[in-house]
Design a protein that fits this description.
It contains three helices and 13 strands, in the order αβββββαβαβββββββ. The chain is mainly β. Strands 3-2-6-9-10-5-4 form a seven-stranded antiparallel beta sheet. It has a four-stranded antiparallel beta sheet with strand order 1-11-12-13, with no helix packed on it. The longest helix has 9 residues. It is globular and about 45 Å long. It starts with a helix and ends with a strand. 31% of the residues are buried.
């Protein structure tokens, strides 16, 4: 029996997940995408993974560059998450906020909850996605406030008070 992909997606929308920006850099150009598929793999040595759809424009760039930065978003970053979620806003994704680099050339978002600068140590193709496993080369905890932006049922939301920020377009 083959399960319906739409039913699977609707079921997965019920899993609240933190929102991150996965960024990289190639040939003088910054690239990035919003993602909820980030997971720690190991603390010793620090390693994490990101799952990237092979149709995403950042996919091939991460593979070629060999590095990426995971930037954990705060509740105030919902508009930024929207910009990184739609191809229409690709040109303005990095505008209006301060960006820097840590060890690799991947953009790190100043003021995010945390930035994990990673070097790709392995990649595994699984159906429509590639799992990029990254060895963490640098971590920046930008401030002590921890109010994450989460994604639940197709919307950006926050854990504080359970209030909805805005529907995702």
């Amino acid at each position: 029996m083959t399960l319906d992909a739409d039913l699977f997606k609707r079921g997965m929308r019920r899993l609240a997940a933190g929102v991150s920006l996965i960024t990289t850099y190639e040939h003088g150009e910054r690239h990035g995408m919003a993602a909820t598929s980030v997971c720690s793999v190991s603390a010793d040595p620090p390693t994490l993974l990101v799952c990237v759809n092979r149709t995403a424009t950042s996919h091939a760039v991460i593979g070629r560059a060999g590095f990426f930065c995971v930037n954990l978003l705060a509740e105030k970053d919902d508009e930024l998450a929207r910009r990184f979620s739609t191809p229409a806003d690709r040109e303005s994704r990095f505008s209006g906020r301060e960006w820097t680099t840590l060890v690799t050339e991947a953009p790190a978002l100043v003021g995010s909850l945390a930035s994990f600068d990673c070097e790709v140590i392995e990649s595994v193709d699984v159906d429509s996605h590639t799992v990029f496993i990254g060895r963490v080369k640098a971590i920046e905890l930008w401030h002590n406030d921890i109010v994450p932006l989460v994604y639940l049922d197709g919307r950006f939301d926050t854990l504080v008070g359970g209030r909805q920020i805005k529907d995702r377009a």
